[in-house]
Design brief:
The chain has a twelve-stranded antiparallel beta barrel with strand order 1-2-3-6-7-8-9-10-11-12-13-14. The chain has a single domain, classed as Beta Barrel (Outer membrane phospholipase (ompla), Chain C), CATH 2.40.230.20. It contains no helices and 14 strands. By secondary structure, it is mostly beta strands.
Length: 271
């Protein structure tokens, strides 16, 4: 029987649906990669084009056997501008005279806790909460200058060589045009990983958010959803990955690719 990758790889590149398993006490997981998408749309600034995000970096620190701290972000986002909309809510704030713009990515800091370990007939459960900080500026056209909060329930179960993971939660998204308003959205994700050899897996997911507000949502807080399908290959403590991205809503990029790697090591002893 084929087995899935170790719990040491509980962080899930190239997927974004969170597994309830944690990295392990005293261990550190480092992942890095890039995304490239076509028709990336920024409705608040009115910019649209081809977006490169590199490097995307994530660090997960196992502070106990059931909990980890996560830090995720990116150093460089570059948009090749194909279209502009002068009627966008914050178009007048964009300070981009040419056909390209760049910025750092927003930083996301979170904590994940495994609540119930997976059993022979019982799925594993966990909880994750995270805050997105406003590092990307709206002057670049790539940021919203809002602070957002997310909380999700995580569930997973392995059956033979297939692991299924599900997330359901809430996101509290700030209105980039008004400081006294927010939008509460439903967040969701469903993923699978199918082992095809002892080292290789085929993976896929649908992940996104659904606007729950009656009427028009605040700018930049509408429904989003992306399908990812790809593969992972593990060799020792290193895992390489790649996937294609397909947007589901009209606001999502039509097509994109992602690739990267993950490395896990023992960093310290937990008392």
């Amino acid at each position: 029987m084929l087995s899935l990758a170790s719990e040491a790889f509980a962080q899930q590149r190239p997927l974004v649906t969170e597994d309830p398993e944690t990295v392990g006490a005293g261990r550190v997981l480092v992942e890095a990669g890039l995304d490239y998408v076509r028709d990336a749309e920024f409705p608040v600034s009115g910019l649209e084009g081809r977006l490169l995000r590199v490097p995307l970096i994530g660090v997960s620190i196992g502070v106990s056997s059931i909990a980890e701290v996560q830090i995720d972000g990116g150093l460089y986002n570059r948009l090749q501008i194909a279209r502009r909309s002068a009627s966008a809510p914050l178009a007048a704030m964009v300070e981009v005279p040419g056909d390209t713009t760049s910025s750092v990515d927003d930083l996301v800091i979170g904590t994940k806790v495994r609540l119930v370990s997976e059993g022979a007939t019982r799925p594993g459960f966990g909880f994750r909460f995270a805050t997105k900080l406003p590092n990307a500026s709206n002057e670049s056209g790539l940021g919203l200058d809002t602070t957002d909060f997310f909380a999700s329930l995580l569930v997973a179960k392995t059956a033979q060589s297939v692991r299924m993971v599900g997330n359901i939660g809430v996101g509290i998204l700030g209105d980039p045009t008004r400081g006294d308003r927010q939008n509460d959205v439903l967040t969701y994700g469903m993923s699978f990983a199918r082992a095809v050899t002892q080292r290789a897996e085929v993976v896929g997911e649908i992940n996104g958010r659904a606007n729950t507000r009656n009427g028009e949502p605040p700018p930049g807080t509408d429904s989003r959803s992306t399908i990812r399908f790809g593969a992972r290959y593990t060799a020792g403590a290193v895992r390489a990955d790649g996937a294609v991205l397909i947007g589901v809503t009209t606001r999502d990029p039509a097509f994109g690719v992602t690739a990267g790697f993950t490395y896990v090591f023992n960093a310290f002893q937990v008392p």
